[in-house]
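note to self: dont lose this again. the chain is below, predicted strucutre after it. 420 aa total, dont forget to put it in the shared folder this time
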Amino acid sequence: MTIISRLKGRILPLRQQAAVTNQWLKHRLEQILPELMKREELDLWVVIAREYNEDPVLLSLIPEPMLSARRRTILVFRRLESGQVERWNFGRPEPGLNEFYQGCWDKSQEEQWACLARHIKDWDPRTIGINVSDTFAFGDGLTQSQYDQFTAALDPLYRDRLCSAERLAVGWLETRTPVEIEAYGAINALAHAIIAEAFSLDVIHPSVTTADDVAWWIRQTITDLGLQAWFQPTVMIQRNGSTSVPSSSIIEPGDLLHCDVGLQYLGLATDTQQMAYVLHVTEGEPPAGLQRALTRGNQLQDIFTEQFVPGRTGNDIFLKALDKAKEQGLQAMIYTHPIGYHGHGAGPTMGLFDQQSFVKGNGEYELNHDTCYAVELNVMENIPEWSDQQVMIALEQTAVFTGGTVHYLGGRQTKLHVVG
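---
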């Protein structure tokens, strides 16, 4: 039985996927958004996007089967004194949209901007959040032309009440509900199953298959399952006696393999890096030094996630963990990012691969409960069986921070995959 036939039954038909994500959206709009608007003290949130130039937040706010903005889509969220949030559509009616948003614009009676400006004047909000940000791309989706047209239509009084909704946009995108968290584990299990198959003799024929062959097999499998890869998968070779092995090289017995794989399902992204060893015919298991190196990678994961405390900034978590790793003798790098609707998602950055120091802007955002991260890091270790050659153990696993604890969704790798 092929992996396609084994996993296909675990993936919902498209129509059922749409029903699930719409249920999630309804719950999020009713439960999550009011809390966030209260936290950020916004009376109004205006999300404006044009077809094929969507605000990154918009696609998380529209239901199936609507897949993009139509002409100009304007969604407005109004927080009431009761704490509830009204949801308004100032654009064209679309299939399914009226179940989530109250339509109020009649094209035959009024110009779109005039309709929006009139309602804002009637509502008299004290704070009007718009998606403009110097820090977060996720809070910067309002284009210059739409900003100019919007503000030109507004009464000067309300123009002065505009403010950045960047923290609301980030909070909306990063926060996961309990049902999303439960589903996320199964989504990551799909990614793990694909990687396990890729790192097996069913896919790799040592001395014949290239690393690029495996990477493309992974992407083809994701596509054949009806899922989407959000970046091109990669497979890397580390080899005893070689400092650099191109991905176009043939995989040989004795190679240490690394993959980086990300897929999307039910609107949520995964990001996974795992390691494998290709056995010689005379070997029954990987060299002990390589397995110890992987254990050191798990040690770094533990050091890092022990620093997860709500309210701490990404920089604080990252720098404390890096200092602790050095104290324990690890040659370590940490470059963890939020994940969710987007692979490189909204929330606090915790180190960058090319910047192992304080990260201005994104790194200064704080850790919140019920948020997810691609715990991405590496350790460098000398391998006795390889004449003390240094290898990189690079690991990445999607995890959730909830209830004050980090949980690896679908589990984390603690043993090398064995090809052979």
